[in-house]
Amino acid sequence: MPQERPSRADTAAAAVLLIERHGTQILGTARRYAQTRDDAEDAYQRALEILLTKAPTTDQNELVPWLKTVVKHEAWALRRQRERHTPTSDDGAPAEPATAEAATHDRIERQERLRIGAEALGRLKPQERRALQLQAEGYSYKEIQQLTGWTYTKVNRCLTEGKTAFLERAAGIEAGEECDRLEAELAGLAGGEDRATAVADLRRHLRRCLRCRARLRELRAAA
Known about the structure:
Layout: H1 8-33, H2 37-54, H3 60-85, H4 100-122, H5 126-136, H6 141-148, H7 152-175, H8 177-181, H9 183-190, H10 196-206, H11 210-222
Helix pairs in contact: 1-2, 1-3, 1-4, 1-5, 2-3, 2-4, 4-7, 5-7, 9-11
């Protein structure tokens, strides 16, 4: 019987954890096999997209070598594509690929999806986040119980509610609800207010949200 593919929430948690711990290593694999530095970046981003949509497991011990193989294949595919289709200018010199703008757009979109996943994971309750990360590392329910000292019921609740909350928060962030929720704190920060809890929340959001960083610059300029 074929293994069931992990859920979106499980995959996103595993992807965030993998990138935090092994992102540099995966990018190094892309650079080893790509023809150019730009191709390495593209191969890395394509591999992350495949990770988010087609990861066969959330076990980090299996996921890291799987992703290295994916990024290697993507790098080689880009190399073959470049060799076959690189256009030339009138003087015979290689020209900028016609799809450069589209490739950049795809890369930004993939980065945005990972940003949303990381922020949504960060907005979970600590116990929900820990349960999802442990499951993403490949631990079973029983092993999570042993590591945390929680009952089976609590592990199940943290995982179930954590997945539901993750999807809701990711959808809200994507729809801009998180930016709207933090608008008052953003105005307060621009005006010099420093409420520890609210500002800590906001600063985590600002690290990943270009829209709110631009809005903060506007508010400070206006002030």
